[in-house]
What does this fold into?
Amino acid sequence: MHTDLRPAEPADIPGVLALWRESAAPTSTDTTAALTGLLQRDPGALIVAGSAGAIVGSVIAGWDGWRGSVYRLSVSPAHRRRGIGGRLLHAAEERLVALGARRLHAIVVGTDALAVGFWEATNWEHQPEQRRYTWG
It folds into this structure.
């Protein structure tokens, strides 16, 4: 089955939220309002993978002018092991580099064995000496 990658549109928001509910741990920003704000502020940041009219994968490739950030790389459990995650990551890398990012980082849930396994299989470097602090 063919999977297309493209920037998300407002009509994709319900599909993205459904994907996240089935494939990733929930976060406080998994809301229609948050995704609407993202699409308004940075229209190309949310990249989706579509198959047969459904959203089966997503990644957020955010650029703040200093460093590129990769968030919420998710693939539907029914569509995993088909290269969609790798294609989404590559699309995120391409977008961020095209915007001028020279350094990229990803936020990965360290207790999610599937997520860690995916990232360990990429050419990205794990930096165990780094810590992440959050607010909100």
Summary: Helices lie at 13-23, 32-41, 84-99, 113-120.
